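Project standup — Tuesday

K.O.: blocked on the structure for the chain from last sprint. Re-posting the sequence here as requested.
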Amino acid sequence: MKCLLLLPLLLLGTVSALFLENDAPHLESLETEADLGQDLDGSGEQKSELALTEEVIQSKGEEVEASACQNTFEDEEAMEPDPAALDKDLQCPRKEDTVQLHGSPECKTCRYVLVRSPMTFSNAQNVCRRCYQGNLVSIHNDHFNYLIQRSASRLNQAQVWIGGILKGWFLWKKYCWTDGSSWNFEYWASGEPRSGSGCCVAMSTRAGHWRRIQCETHLPFVCSF
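H.V.: unblocked you, prediction finished:
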């Protein structure tokens, strides 16, 4: 009788052992998935840290750019309005280095000159003030933009300075003309001005589009007076 009672118990124990043995890989799989989940969480933390680092770098880049634009603005503001007070070593362009341009339809008495000699933005503005009692040219419509581009296209240069400059800090940055006139027209190239890296505005001699470039670049320029 005792043998008959022990037989079902032995069979039950054998089945349980087989079940646990077959289920072991499943348990190991669950542990592996848990480990992977922790690894993925760690990867997410690393991505967050990387994104934060990129934001800091971008912020630093914008801060440097804003500082550079502010320095350029201060340099431009420091330009003396009195031609007699300007740098005595600054030479006025020779006549053969200039091209007289047609006037703007909006200003019949205005005169314009294209100076072939490449200069930085600040020196170009100083030449316009000292030699012509004017400023780098401001542009307020498509037609005049085309007239300037057509004349500049004869030069062996890709760009010329016009009188646009970026002033201010961060959200308070704005584009201004050196002659103080209203900024009421734009003709930016594709992606500009956001993709530009400078604070001063140059015109393409090929298509007339505007680009932001470094103010220390040496380019020909157009004065209005």
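K.O.: great, moving the ticket to review. The longest helix spans residues 2-77. The domain at 83-224 is CATH 3.10.100.10 (Mannose-Binding Protein A; Chain A).
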